[in-house]
Design a protein that fits this description.
414 residues; 43% helix; alpha/beta; 6-stranded mixed beta sheet; 5-stranded mixed beta sheet
Length: 414
């Protein structure tokens, strides 16, 4: 074959054209706009659990808790179980409902869990490092699952803490319907004048709501559990009208490690007031105010006439209000604190009216403080939030949601 023959070169030209064509296609592919990905369908949130009858919900949560915990075998040596009284999961208060839950759990354990021995929650019994059951009972919006908006269900949370291992060893939850449930506070919680965020109460709530089996017990709760047992004895004495005994126990609690708690300050004031020891009650309330100012927030349960800025004309309720106002004014002035005084209302009634009423009530309290301590005129400001920051949110307008009609003193920068 003649190497100069053009026909003999044709296959080589075809190869070169093919390579060029393929290169061009590759270049076009690189420059082509990317294909749009098909959007995956949005994840559908799980449906909210349907609330069940209150008694059934308590038993469901308790059985879930105890059946999953590693309890000793039946017929052997029984393990001691203490119940640290259950509380509202937002306010930390005890009620007829929480007391009823506790009794139902005790009856269940004695009937179906013979490997456990229920004993009184006390400092002596805590010394043996037993199992401790804690629990919260919280009004929630069932659809959102949060303690906000309209509360149409109760969330029950139970946890089992093993003091020997320092771990949470069981958890049980359920949701209950609201019908027929009595949320009336026990006498101590109904009478307590003040509320604020409290580390001890938060530690208890987190031990239940913020834990799962295998987690360490909340360290704040663990460190203050002895004081909690002492305060439980004091509250029981108060609820039984044994005021002298309760006062001695509250004094003792305040002197123990971890005893500087809201419950102890409320209790020392209440017991002294019931015993008509005016000077001691005044000093106890002053310490309560100092505790709130140190925490930069303190709410007082002033009860007003409906739709008014005037206090309820009942000496049993509003009789101590002048003492409260005097100590708030004095301690704030002495601490050179600047305060935002915030009015709150329950959610019953139109919100625009609630908003306006909350501002007027805050202003009325500010005027009283300014009159008592004129230097507070420029150190305080009044505002209101209507029902937007309800703690209880049930809208019952009785002792059960008195905290929703509170007046709050927030420490602000001057």
């Amino acid at each position: 074959m003649n190497p100069s023959n053009p026909i003999s070169e044709q296959p080589h030209r075809l190869d070169r054209w093919l390579l060029l064509a393929l290169a061009g296609l590759a270049l076009l592919a690189c420059q082509a706009p990317p294909q749009r990905e098909t959007a995956s369908p949005a994840a559908v949130p799980p449906a909210a659990p349907s609330p069940i009858a209150f008694d059934d919900a308590v038993l469901k949560a308790a059985n879930e808790l105890l059946s999953r915990a590693q309890l000793p075998p039946a017929g052997g040596q029984r393990q001691v179980l203490l119940i640290d009284p259950l509380v509202d999961g937002v306010t930390g208060s005890q009620s007829v409902a929480t007391r009823s839950m506790e009794q139902k759990i005790v009856d269940l354990v004695r009937r179906d869990y013979p490997q456990l021995e229920v004993q009184t929650f006390s400092t002596n019994n805590l010394a043996g490092q037993p199992l401790v059951l804690v629990g919260t009972f919280t009004p929630i919006n069932n659809g959102a699952g949060q303690p906000t908006g309209e509360r149409d269900a109760f969330r029950i949370c139970l946890a089992l803490a093993d003091l020997k291992t320092g771990k949470v060893v069981g958890k049980g939850v359920a949701r209950a319907r609201t019908d027929g449930v009595k949320t009336t506070p026990l006498p101590f919680d109904a009478d307590s004048p003040a509320w604020t965020r409290d580390a001890a109460t938060d530690g208890y709530i987190k031990t239940c709501q913020g834990s799962k089996a295998g987690d360490p017990i909340n360290p704040v709760y663990a460190a203050r559990i002895m004081a909690a047992a002492l305060l439980n004895d004091a509250s029981n004495a108060y609820n039984s009208r044994r005021y002298q005994e309760s006062l001695e126990l509250y004094r003792r609690a305040l002197g123990t490690v971890g005893g500087d708690q809201l419950r102890a300050h409320n209790g020392a004031y209440l017991a002294a007031w019931k015993l008509k020891r005016r000077d001691e009650a005044t000093l106890a309330f002053a310490r309560l105010v100092d505790y709130g100012l140190a925490n930069r927030q303190l709410s007082l349960k002033f009860l007003f006439r409906p739709g008014s800025t005037q206090f309820i004309p009942d000496a049993q309720i509003s009789g101590p209000y002048p003492l409260w106002l005097d100590q708030i004014a004095r301690r704030s002035a002495q601490n050179r604190a600047c305060l935002e005084i915030v009015g709150h209302t329950s959610r019953s009634g139109p919100e625009p009216i609630n908003q306006r009423l909350s501002v007027l009530r805050a202003q009325a309290i500010k005027d009283r403080l300014d009159s008592a301590e004129p230097q507070l005129v420029k150190r305080t400001v009044a505002s209101g939030v209507g029902s937007r920051e309800n703690l209880v949110g049930t809208g019952t307008d009785d002792a059960g949601d008195a905290l929703d009609r509170r007046v709050e003193f927030r420490v602000i920068d001057c």
